Amino acid sequence: MKKMQEINEYWERHKGDPSILLPARGIQSRIALFEKNLDKKRVLHFGCSDWPYTKEKVFEKNLLHQDLEKVASELYGVDLSEEGIRIMKEQGIRNLFTGDIYTLAEDKNLADKKFDVILATEILEHLVNPGMALDSVKRYILKTNPECRIIFTVPNCQNFWHSFISGLRKKETVHYDHKFYFSYRTFRTLLEEIGFETEDFYFVTYGRGHRTMKGKIMIKLFSWLFQCLSPYLYFKCRVKK
Questions:
Q1: Which InterPro entries match (predicted)?
Q2: Model pTM?
Q3: What mean pLDDT value characterizes the chain?
Q4: Hey, which bits of 62-189 come out as E strands?
């Protein structure tokens, strides 16, 4: 926490500068961070179905929501895809709703629920208006539990593969449905404009490499050499008091 306090103090001093020193936090596995921060917590997971890959991931036990079931004390999932939710329900996954992040604050299915953590993983880059979605989440938190934390992961615009390797090949490697990529500065600025404050931050990897010795070694090595070029950004936030 001391390191994050130093980062926040630096941010306050320099956020008006045209360039800003990126936090030296090292690379973490996003799933390892989820497991740590969601342990024994009441959790609302946005984008839980990972549509259109739901069916294959559910059967391979490779769906993030299935990992979260093992650590959260109570887990709810919301997704815009009715088909994705249907497939998950057929496999015995409970507490699932079809819903829209833009209208979260008005969602009757969740109006009486109180969560410790809201998880929004790789969602905002798919939206036409991420600021409106963030405002909806903020209003829901203030309505149900102002002490609730929210964790975001978003694609890093400085991802080594996208920004360098693909450039050398004169190609653009991007998900067909992505509208945005973010940097540490642009996403943190957006969060603050909407009314969130950052409690924790990391550059993160996507998969489960932290569970193998080889993966742990690679993450440790790249943490100091290439952390700013990692695929994703992790922000743990709360609504500003």
A1: SAM-dependent_MTases_sf
A2: 0.90
A3: 89
A4: 74-79, 96-98, 117-121, 149-155
